[in-house]
Design a protein that fits this description.
This protein is 0% helix and 43% strand. With 281 residues, it is mainly beta. The radius of gyration is 19 Å and the shape is globular. Fe (ii) ion binds next to loops.
Length: 281
């Protein structure tokens, strides 16, 4: 079963639980943002405790995509600090994994996954993104869709799948002019997923603040969008390549719309949960 439309939740209200000893990351704390229970696909934040280790070379029988929100993770000789991104394909050979001081990592698995300590059958080299340091990478300031409303726009594409066209990227948006009255609406043919890393976004469903998360299936019209303080957002397009159909008409920007999320039944209980202050997610 496909994942349901979640739009949107402040991830701060979602619970942490500790992964059991049988999990691929035993003892790490986990916060589930969304999941496909049938396929075992998940979008999670993993909180690795100080001293976490998988102390042998290994491979995972699944792709793993991740972005370090806080702290530092080492896999073999590669050090992933805050803002580092990777897409490690299924069966990619990994050195030991070590987290000396603790780390929070936005992580995506496309299905159930386990560690294996044999050599494996090789991996798809075309899909490997071993590391992108988003703090030093060259951001694309010219390539943002001109219909996106805002100043100071910049985009950093982290991954483009050679088969499916799925894409992962970070978008920075500056402050939208308070004189902005209206903007067009947009629709994408495939899933759009986002975690707001900082700032805020105004939408008719409410004001997304740092830590806001959505999983938006294809075909759902959304917008108009604007940002009072500017923002940085981590996006994925799933199930197919990214494209946008814009409406020819515009609608009024709702700068401070009340929170009216679209949530599946099991997440309705978080609709009125207070968002703890001082937590980014
Ligand atoms: Fe969109």
């Amino acid at each position: 079963m496909a994942r349901p439309h979640i739009e949107f939740l402040q991830s701060q209200v979602l619970p942490w639980f500790t992964l059991p000893g049988t999990a691929a990351r035993p003892g790490a704390d986990c916060k589930i943002l969304s999941r496909d229970a049938e396929a075992g696909a998940v979008s999670v934040i993993l909180r690795y405790p100080a001293g976490f280790a998988i102390d042998r070379p290994h491979r995972l029988d699944s792709d793993e995509e991740f972005y370090v929100l806080k702290g530092e993770v080492s896999i073999g000789d590669t050090v992933y600090g805050e803002g580092a991104y990777a897409f490690l394909p299924k069966d990619f050979p990994r050195g030991p994994m070590r987290v000396s001081k603790g780390a929070d990592v936005l992580t995506f698995f496309p299905h159930k996954h386990d560690n294996h300590f044999d050599g494996g059958a090789g991996y798809d080299k075309r899909k490997l993104v071993e590391k992108v340091d988003t703090k030093t990478a060259a951001w694309d300031v010219a390539g943002v869709d001109p219909k996106v409303v805002g100043s100071g726009l910049a985009k950093l594409v982290l991954r483009l799948d050679p088969d499916s066209g799925e894409r992962t990227w970070i978008l920075r948006m500056g402050t939208s002019s308070p004189d902005l009255k209206a903007a067009p609406l947009e629709t994408h043919p495939f899933v759009e997923e986002m975690l707001l890393l900082d700032g805020a976004i105004s939408m008719p469903w409410g004001v997304l603040r740092q830590g806001a998360y959505f999983w938006r299936p294809g075909g759902i019209q959304h917008g108009p969008i604007a940002s009072k303080p500017g923002c940085t957002a981590f996006f994925r397009c799933k199930e197919g390549p990214f494209s946008t159909n814009w409406t020819s008409h515009t609608e009024t920007i709702q700068w401070d719309a009340p929170y009216q999320p679209v949530l599946p039944p099991d997440l309705q209980k978080y609709k009125d949960a207070p968002v703890p202050a001082g937590q980014a997610y």
